[in-house]
Amino acid sequence: MIATLLASGVLPVPEGPAPAANPAAIAMFVSFVAATLVITYFSARKSSGSSSAYFAAGRRITAWQNGLAVAGDYMSAASFLGIAGMIAVAGYDGFLYSVGFLVAYLTVLLLVAEPLRNAGKYTMADVLAYRLSPRPVRALASLSTIIVSTFYMIAQMVGAGSLVKVLIPGMTYNVAVAAVGVLMIVYVVFGGMLATTWVQIVKAVLLMSGSVFLSVLVMSRFHFSLSEFFGSLSHITSHKAGVEVTQDFMTPGLKFKNPLDFISLSLALVFGTAGLPHILIRFYTVPDAKTARGSVVWAMVLIGVFYIMTTFFGFGAASVLGPDFIMKNGGANMAAPELARALGGNIFFAFISAVAFATILAVVAGLTISASTSFAHDFFTNVIHHGKEHRPGEEVRVARITAFVVGAISIALAMALGPTANVAFLVGLAFAVAASANLPAIVLSIFWKRFNTSGAVWGLSVGLASSIGIIIISPTIMTVDAPTVAASARHLIQHAPIFPLENPGILTIPLGFLAAIIGTLLSNEPSAEAMFTELTVRANTGLGAEKATAH
Amino acid sequence: MSAPDHADLTPDSAAPTDIAPLGRSAPKPGHEMTAEEERGSVDWAAIANDADFKKLLASKIRFILPATIFFLAYYFALPILVGWCPGLMKTKIGGVNYAYLFAFSQFFMAWVVAGIYVKKAGVWDTAAAAIIAKFKKH
């Protein structure tokens, strides 16, 4: 499942020969960081300090810009390093992630993006609070947003720590994590959504160009012949537990043995995206629903092209480097950078690594702003203060403080877990919670007239609790390791898994929907039904939607 | 100077305005109105009962429902076939197996569905604009 995929971004980096200092890599890191700080500086100067400027970039982001930013938020280190690594060591099954990650955008486009933009303001909870009792719904939605974002973020930071440590010898893991954390706090606290969006755009462009170049290099190795490329994949030799095996990497099932694993994974992928808070809040940065739609289309083109290219650099790594080499040199998550080194030399290796680092930095900033926006807007303003801002600018001030706190907590947790931590489950949790808790509440409140507060509270709590619970008893956390497994790579609970599948989606997504439906039917809320008329008109006409702010 | 002390009439179901009323007495220009401020100014029920609006909704549902069922069916066919018919999916045609070709086709399926949706949505935009214009006059 995603957990395993992200594990690759997060798992311990095996001790290899100490890499030589890489001045090119350091130069590229530094120039990227400098560029993003300049962006943040100008964003901070432009921002007027109003909530809409800070949380939603003034709603003046254009379709292609937002498309790039959405794509950037989505193509995290998990996608780039993780999928490439997974395809490189497990073949076809890894490619299923690529497919699911794109098709998921149809759920976003057809069901969620436009109603959300038309009826909401800054957060995912806005659309729920529209016709439901705002305080319980916002409190729960805010909790699930913060859980999803923080866990996702810790995994990214551990990944960044490992990456930097490998690239810049002498830099310890803790220093690397602290550096990522501090940069991310700077972007978010000073630059707000505008800076975060532009950091994301810059990174998306870098990532796309790096991937295109890497794919071209791979294909040149096979004389630009697809049949030669695919032919080379039919006999990949590797060593599994000391035994040499030759496998056809195009064959499904090298990783997943149980067909239900495929289904459960696919469910979480296709429904998880439409519930990821850091993706959803991007639709508030555009002027209207039409632009939100346009930005999903831009994102789908970019994301689609990117994930098709995982064919070349994922399978390419398997074919050119071989799974054995990958596992010995930095592990699965370094497959793409190592492939770049093999094909393009040290400079290209430095470039791809810097891009991966930029990716992590940008995604972490996006996650922080989604967590802090939700805390400030949903919890502080609406739950504690009943929807009234006591002083102008208070909401933004709270969000800045929250960003600082969230950043500090993530730095502390990422350091406490250490570079060898198996925090994979944290990211698995993100998609599982998003699909099982957030999506039922969002979809039902937009489309079901009868839906009410009790239903949302049931759906959110059952979805949240069951996805966390099931992951804990799934093989991701609960597995008996062989005695030969290194202590750092051991699973957290040494017990045979109670839930057999790696992804909880197949059980928890229906459970989330079911709980939301049962909760609804158990209570009666005429006001929620009455407001459905207004929500429907707003969602479908855009009448009364939040406007872009003037300069 | 301090901002005038407005009685906040914002309903509890949504947040207050994000633009601080810094002592300006003239009504806000349209682009500064927030969703809540516009709330009282529109007769939502009248629009909801309008024939054109109902036609718009029906037209949306007529497309979105089948399109969603189609893309989910097409998408889940992949894990189902890969999981339960591995023999078939391993069959190669021109050096590539069905499993990869079907997975690859999903990208184009997604783009085509998105393309058709955008085309349809353009028509809906026009219809929605007409409805808004009609109710602005009254």
Describe it.
The complex is a heterodimer of chains A (551) and B (138). By secondary structure, chain A is mainly alpha-helical. Chain A contains 20 helices and 2 strands. In chain A, a hairpin with a 2-residue loop joins strand 1 and strand 2. In chain A, helix 8 crosses helix 16 and helix 13 packs antiparallel against helix 15. The N terminus of chain A is likely disordered. Chain B is mainly α. Chain B is built from 5 helices and 2 strands, in the order H-H-H-H-E-E-H. In chain B, helix 3 runs antiparallel to helix 5. Chain B is elongated. The chains are: A mainly alpha (551), B mainly alpha (138).
Query: What does the main sheet of chain A amount to?
Result: 2 strands, antiparallel
Helix content of chain A: over 70%
Radius of gyration of chain B: 25 Å
Continuous helix count of chain A: 20
Radius of gyration of chain A: 22 Å
Domains of chain B, number: 2
What strand order characterises the main sheet of chain B? Answer: 1-2
Average predicted confidence as pLDDT of chain B: 77
Order of SSEs of chain A, N→C?
Answer: HHHHHHHHHHEEHHHHHHHHHH
Approximately how much beta-strand content do the residues of chain A carry?
under 5%
Which word captures the global form of chain A? globular
